[in-house]
Amino acid sequence: MMTMTDISPSQNPAQLLKDLFVVAVDAASPKGTLANFLPEKTPEKNKGRTVVIGAGKAAASMAQALEDALEQALGEKGEDKNIDGLVVTPYAHGVPTKWIEVVEAAHPVPDDEGEAVAKRLLEKVSNLSHDDMVLCLISGGGSALMALPAAGLTLADKRDINTKLLKSGAAIDEMNTVRKHLSAIKGGRLAIAANPARVVSLAISDVPGDDQSVIASGPTVADPTTFADALAVLNKYSIVASQNVDRALQEGKAGKREETPKPGDPRLERCEMHIIATPALSLVAAGDAARHAGYKLQMLGDDIEGEAREIGRQHARLAIEAANSSNKRMAIISGGETTVTVKGDGRGGRNAEYLLGLAIELAGHPDIYAIACDTDGIDGTEDNAGAVCGPDTLTRAAALGLDGPAMLAGNDAYSFFDKLGDLVITGPTRTNVNDFRCILIR
Question: Which of the 8 DSSP states describes residue 21?
Answer without folding.
Answer: H
